[in-house]
Amino acid sequence: MGNTAKASENWSEIIAMKDARIAKLEALVKYYEEQFRLTKHRQFGAKSEKSEYDSAQLSIFNEAELLADTSITEPELVEVEKHYRKRTRLTTDKLPEDLPVEIVVHELPEQERICSECGEKLHAMGRDKRRELVVIPAQVKIVEHVRRVYACRNCEKDGCCVPIVKAAVSEPVIKGSFASPETIAHIMTQKFVMGVPLYRQEQDWKRRGILLSRQTMSNWVIKATEDFLEPIYDRLKELLLAHDIIHADETTLQVLHEPGKPPQSKSYMWLYRTSGYNPQSMEVKHPIVLYEYQSDRRAKHPEAFLKDFKGYCHADGYGGYHTLPDNIAIVGCWSHYPRCMIIR
C-alpha cells in the first residue's frame, strides 16, 4: 500500500508539472498569435491617419480618375525664362554600343611640348582614355503655332465677296488645351512605366518653374486614353481573339476609393495574351498582351471578354474558366499540375 501511494503521488506531481507546462505554452502561443495579428494589421489593415497623398501613393491604376475634374479650366499658359540644369552620373556598367560618342582631345600647349632635360621638342608617344556617361536633361519649351490667313486684295476692292484661305495646321491633341502629344506621353510614361505619381510630377514641374496641377494632368491622361489608346486596345483585342490559342490569368490588386467596396477588399486584373506557338513559324511575330480590370473574380468577366473567341484557352485550375462556352476549350497548365496533385 505504501509503494502504491508513493507512486500515485509521483504521477500526480508529473501530471501537475505537465499541466503547468501546457498552460505556459498555451499562453505563449496565444501571445505570439496576438503579436502576429497586430503585425498583419499594421502592415495591411486600414490606418486611422489620412494623408492627401494616400491615393496617389497606393493607387496604381485609378489615380487619374480620382483627381480628374473636367469642370476646372486649365490655367493660362505663362512663358517663363528658359533654363537648363546639368545632371551627370558616372557608371561602371556596360554602355550600349550604339550611343553617340563625343571625343574630347586634351593636348599640351605648344610652348609646353619641350623636353625638360635637353630642350628638344616632344612627340606624341601614346594616349590615355576614359569614358563618361553624360545625361542631358529633357528640355521644356513652348511651341507657338501661328496660322497665316490669306485674302484677295482685288476682291476686297471690287468683288462682292472675298475668299479667305487659311494655312493648314495640325489639330491639337486636346481641343482648348495647351497639351502636346510629347507632354502627355511624358506624363503617362512617368506614371505608368516609372511609377511616379501625379502629385510628385506636379512638384517636379513646379521645380522647373511650371505650374501644372494634378487635376489638369489627370484630365489630359483620361482624355488622351479615351481618344487614342482605347481604339488601339479595341483593335489589339480583335487581333488577339482571332488567334486559335491564347493564355488567360488573373491576379489581385488593391484599389482605393472604389464605389461600394472597402479599401481592404480585393479587386482583379485579368490578363489575356497570345500564345508563343505558331504552326508555321513556331512563334508569334507580334505578341499581344492585354489587361482588363474587374472589381471581382466572377466567371462572367472572361466570358464577356472572350465572347468572340474560338479555340484553346490555356489557364490554371480556376473553375471560372471551365464555365466558358463549348467553343472555347480549356487546356491546363503543366506548371500548375504538380502543385495541384500535391494539394490533392
What is the topology, as strand order, of the major beta sheet? 7-6-5-8-9
Cα distance, first to last residue? 56 Å
Strand content: 5-15%
Radius of gyration: 35 Å
Key terms for this structure?
single chain, 344 residues, five-stranded mixed β-sheet, 12% strand
Task: Explain briefly what this protein structure is.
The chain is of the alpha/beta class and 344 residues long. The chain is built from nine helices and nine strands.
Written description of the protein model:
The protein is an alpha/beta fold. It has two domains: 54-139 and 148-233, no CATH class; 242-343, no CATH class. The protein has nine helices and nine strands. The strands form three sheets. A five-stranded mixed beta sheet has the order 7-6-5-8-9, covered by helices on one side. The longest helix is centred in the first third of the chain and has 43 residues, at 2-44.
Secondary-structure blueprint of this entry?
Elements (H helix, E strand, L loop, with lengths): L1 H43 L9 H5 L4 H5 L19 E2 L45 E2 L13 E3 L1 H6 L5 E3 L14 H13 L4 H10 L6 H28 L3 E9 L13 E8 L14 E6 L5 H6 L5 E4 L13 E4 L5 H7 L1
Parallel strand pairs: 5-8, 8-9
Antiparallel strand pairs: 1-2, 3-4, 5-6, 6-7
